[in-house]
Protein 1
Amino acid sequence: MTFRQTLKTTIGLALCLGLAACGSGSGSSDGNASPGGKSYHRPETAGTNYDKSSIWDVFGPNKSDQTVQVNRYIWAATLDVLSFLPVQSVDPFTGVIVTGYGNPPGGGQAYRATVHIKDPALEARSLNVALQTRNGPVSATTARAVEDAILARARQLRIGDSKL
């Protein structure tokens, strides 16, 4: 046997084993099989990886993990407080706002920010602000002051909504 024939045989065997692993498991003894041999899922397993239909669904991203709820008041307050910065990208699914460099009103120093809203609660732990100048990161007190301004504005927006 030549090397090329051995390689073809090995690849063919690997493909056959891979396809066999994707079988339907009709011989299960958990009571989910019908007389025709088809396997049905119990309602309590809905939403798990058992309901994937192909190999690409199993190894692809989980659709339920892609939706992260962010606090809408913190989101709006962030865009409001940092309105002097040009927005480069926003991702409401992960709660990330990235801005470009901009000068605050009355200031000479250019800043840029990356904001991560990681929780739907209107609390300080839900917000993470990273500020940077052209010379490097800003002090922790400056970043904390911006976080406090965003949270104060978010509370104002929430109070304004409750009066409607």
Protein 2
Amino acid sequence: MTFKPSRPLLCTVLICAGLASCGPTGQQVTEVPLAGDDPVPDSTLWDLFQNVDDPNVTLEVNRYLWTAALEVLDFMPVEASDPFSGVIVMGYGTPPGGSRAYRATVYVQDPALDARSLNLALSSRSGPASPDTVRAVEDAILTHARMLRIRDQNL
């Protein structure tokens, strides 16, 4: 009876041999830290599985943009929303006076009330909506958010 190595075993041996040949070549490499560099703590593969996130860290979302997006797009059903990350996913809905159904994903990514804080993806059943339509909806949301803020300041 003779030993005949299997293909996966042979591939494993070749990969290990190839990785072993990638070791140090005998040349000494020293790293010179630059001014202001903080030393990077050593980490291992097991650090990926530890929960090191700070539970006290929260993301801030502009409440006026959030409310305005829900009110302007109220003809669409809300499929999912997460006020902590600023994402609203809406299903297909037909705007009043329109004939084409749209769906939207809104991402409010900053506490500031400006256009950079709002990200909108709008599509119809036949594909992405035109950039002019997306811009018009974004403008409507931003205008409504500004009106909400002005109304709150007058109270």
Protein 3
Amino acid sequence: MTKISQRRALLLAAVVPALLIAGCSANTQAMKGAASPGTPTDMDSMSPGTASPSDTAGGSQAESAVQGYFNALKSGNLDQVVSSFADDAVVAVDGQATAEGSQAIRALFQKLQGSQDMKQATHTIDQSRTAGDQDAFVRSTSKQGDDDYRELFLLSKDGEEWKISQFMNNQAS
């Protein structure tokens, strides 16, 4: 396992359980047309050094990277969607096979691109945090047609740019 893969696995192990708990309590937030900063949640009480609030430069930049992904989806710009992801990213979209790597991600979003619901979707960024200076996560909710989705993005720095390294979504109950 590479150092990057180990770092991502540790980040997932530390973040996902807390996000699931926080996400369940935050599910009542109204959907908005454009992404906006989330409100503080139980994640604010994490131990020092584990994560930084979203008002830090890294959290805001990671949030901007996710907003760029959402904008690319809405505009139907497949190249921009794919460039939002790291070359070795993993994407797990509800109801689809997991896509690993740029070519598989391109094929997945090419398949999904024709959906009118995706182009008219609304997205709300509920929370963004940095984990050190190289990793961040963003939790969001989206409404596509009659369906509500929860999304979790793990991001890593690629030079000075934030790239999505893992993306997962599922339908909210």
Protein 4
Amino acid sequence: MSSSVLMRNNVKILGEGTQYMIFAPGFGCDQNMFRFITGHFAKDYRIVLFDYVGIGGSDSSAYMPERYSSLSGYVEDVLDVCSAIGARNAIFVGHSVGAMVGLLASIKEPDYFERMILIGPSPCYLNDPSNDYYGGFDQEQLEGLIQLLEQNFMGWGSSLAVTVMQNPDRPELASELEASFCSIDPDVALRFSMATFFSDNRKDLSLVSVPSLILQCREDVIAPVAVGEYMNRNLKESEYRLMQATGHCPHLSHPQETIDLISEYLSHPAGSNRRTEERGNHG
């Protein structure tokens, strides 16, 4: 089982430490997106990189539409990887929907994880005015995104990449993200996008027991500041940092700030709750 999982999810393990640090990509991204930050942590941690089935260098023949029609399939990918490597008390670094996948995995198997690093997380992308929740999108916007994917896949990839990345002064970043999106099989992209953008995991936040750090970017269209603040209010043991970084991918656009904030968080013992006195005072 373990060797097949490692091949299925294109798992790469490196680094000199003993504690695992597992990096989970966001929607439409592979493990290469973390290349600017993993080197810093390789001296002290055992770095684990992987791709979700259907993405990057994973085994595409293992893709099962019914499994990956919801986030639960991606949660199982994470749990399978953790089981295969024998993870215990790992540091989990998840970007975007990868952050929520990690939180859901921690609810099922909390012993796998010591702490969660959540980069641009969102439990729900859909606005819910009746409950005073602003996720960033209304129903028509999300349906339009799906329609564009179905009718003009390349145009969808280009449009979404620009929206996600922001940082217009560095167009090469959006170009890289566009290439990543457009490298996915359109059917896989459609199911993953629907599983991501139409999920609502707000009620699951109260079930999370693993301490977490929320890294929130400014000018993030995908996960606005209000969402990061919501996450911080509803997770039992969390710390919140409003970054100087803009957009939705600080590990690409602002890697040093991302490294600094993760390092600062990990320099304190797990479970030391400093959320009140240090909430959002960075930047």
